[in-house]
Amino acid sequence: MIRYSSTVMPYLMYEIAAPYVRLKFQDETVEFRYATRKEFSMWKSLKPEIRQELENLVKALELMVDPGNLKPIDVMTKLQDILGISYGEIAAKKQRGELVYIPGDGRTKWISVNDSKPEDGTLVLVTVLTTDCKLVVRTGFYDSHTRTWRAGKAANEIAWMPAPDPYEGE
Asked: Cα(first)–Cα(last) distance of the chain, in Å?
């Protein structure tokens, strides 16, 4: 799933999780399948800039979900081209919570670190973007006193989910 704050229209938030798109504007939410978006009754009423931004986000999501044999740096370069913003702007949007990529299909239990934090010191699974631009899952916890994540080597935490219960045998 990808969450993205519109650069075209303030207060518009996109959430894209295969196969759906959700547009949130203030208190209103509209959801439709992006494969059939052009048949959606509201599609033609959207501003052309919004339609183009949405098309670019769908391309970005497809690239993040299946980068093929591209190296991480090549993925970042393509993302910059698709989104029309630099790596620094991508990082800044992510830092402000305006661009969030959460691995999974939208039905998983991943929770954006911008939405909430786990209970202090509770062991969880954490999806992180490493310094070499790889998404990995690590175990870790959130320290509310220092307001930092403890999830191994230097990384950019993206989402978390409760850790499963340990195996107890048969």
From this structure: 35
